[in-house]
Amino acid sequence: MGRAVTVATCALNQWALDFEGNLERILRSIDIAKSKGARYRLGPELEICGYGCSDHYYESDTLLHSFQVLEKLLVSPATRDIICDVGMPVLHRNVRYNCRVIFLNKKILLIRPKISLANTGNYRELRWFTPWSKARQVEEYFLPRIIQEVTGQETVPFGDAVLATKDTCLGAEICEELWAPNSPHIDMGLDGVEVFTNSSGSHHVLRKAHARVDLVNSATAKNGGIYILANQKGCDGDRLYYDGCAMISMNGETVAQGSQFSLDDVEVLVATLDLEDVRSYRAEISSRNLAASKVNPYPRVKVNFALSCPDDVAVPTCMPIQWRHHSPEEEISLGPACWLWDYLRRSKQAGFLLPLSGGIDSSATACIVYSMCHQVCLAVKSGNADVLADARRIVNDDTYIPEDPREFCKRVFTTCYMASENSSQDTCNRAKLLAEQIGSYHINLNIDAAVKAVVGIFSVVTGQTPRFSVYGGSSRESLALQNVQARVRMVLAYLFAQLTLWARGMPGGLLVLGSANVDESLRGYLTKYDCSSADINPIGGISKTDLKNFIQYCIENFQLTALRSIMSAPPTAELEPLVDGQVAQTDEADMGMTYAELSVYGKLRKIAKAGPYSMFCKLINMWKEICTPREVASKVKHFFRMYSVNRHKMTTLTPSYHAENYSPDDNRFDLRPFLYNTSWSWQFRCIDKQVN
Predict the structure, then answer these.
(1) Domain covering 326-452+492-570 in this structure, CATH number
(2) pLDDT at residue 409 is higher than 90
(3) Do residues 570 and 689 lie in contact, with contact meaning Cβ atoms separated by under 8 Å?
């Protein structure tokens, strides 16, 4: 009868504008899909050019090269006898669309433009594309000559249609359309579509994966059907990490799950499913069938091809599985580690340098690099030839095989403790012990000579010598002296990143890692152009609370016992003089708020869209057991003063791994002024009125 259909989806580590690499990975995924018997292959959103092209979408070159890649796919023997569904930008009647191009045996079946564009948070699709607004309508698309010469077609259908094969009906969604309240799969399912496809460019956020899985499963739970989701994976050139999770679901249950974090550039999932299971599932949902009898039909593109074989009675079909989610600590260990690996190999640098202070933030960053080394060794052990080739190029040794994470860490990771007269022996010892346990190449140096030289220049010019407040200086003098230390560390970090390997007789340079967490950035508790100024920052989107939990995870899973003393020590910048050899300065005292409070402020400000007054109104209820309304008002005012005074620092914030939805990243996620009226007089007066 032809009941068992075999379909494939994939997660590809595509790279913006890497047309050659993207083509190779697409072809590899098609080869794997065919070798496993698939008759249909789905790829990620905009996979031909890479999702993160941004304003390069405006360029005619991007469109031209995408069609050139499409031409290579059409003529490749790999694409024979399998329906291929690929993503690329297409210009139709001088309007640019985000499209799926679906083809079979050198013939384009349909170009399906995206209907609902992602335009929140990190997404700016409306900047580059126009949504297709003609529901259930198709137009003629005139193919470029290079494609006409291959397909023999002058025009092809362009618009909102579905494919009718010999045995079933397929309908496409693109990423955001799954998340929209009026998802196309609803009406498509009512119109008899049995197989839904979704090509995504969905990035990682802590604790987000379950939402995507639930949406896919719920799409077919009420309406029946098979749902296939493909996703981008890896770092394709910016702050986002696309976290794979390709999946196949049927009738509300997952039947195939792809990995969320992996160093494999190409991952293909294949499932064989029984169409009769969809039909019998739908048969008893009377409300669905009543709605289906009234639905406005979709245009159908007839395809003389089947996803099943005629004699398939004995073909085994896939059974439901239980989705396995990572804990937030595992996500922190794996996501930023994979992002760092992509950045390292694609930037063609020789490793990382991290100023390691012995505190929680820089130690967490070091642990993420160590986790990266773990992932590399595991990938090589499992036979990943791409990772092995990259590792050999990075360490400049054609025979090298990374087997021990500590040994590999020694080759690619340099840590540096930059002591001053205000540093304690405790933090020095903690940094040294952690470096020993993870295996990094560790440097101890003292910055006092450089600090004194810089301050000395100021003294010669002005005749004034600034002093710390504990020695009778003003707060301005004390802050300036702290900032000099912090900025000298940044200069030295870049000097050592450029020349450490040279001094050791090795080629290449190092990428400087920053380690300011999302809460400190939000509050502005950092020196502009200090060690927070780096090439990239793997923890810049992660809260202090989550980082502490991650440190505990590393103690238990990586046996890094040095982290115990780091966990128990109060966070400190160590920029003010010691008192009796002990640290007198702590972060939370300096900030005037706790890290736990900062996380609450951050979520209310960004996720709940709360200004000062709304935040006060929410917190008098949230904190009614621990604070009076007047205390809440004082805390909210202090936060907004500090946030607005320091917002200018976000304009130069080091590019950070995006992991939290309350990130203050000024690049494109959190767009705000950086010159505020910091008195907030009207807003604070409204708060005072309510307090009184």
Answers:
(1) 3.40.50.620
(2) yes
(3) no
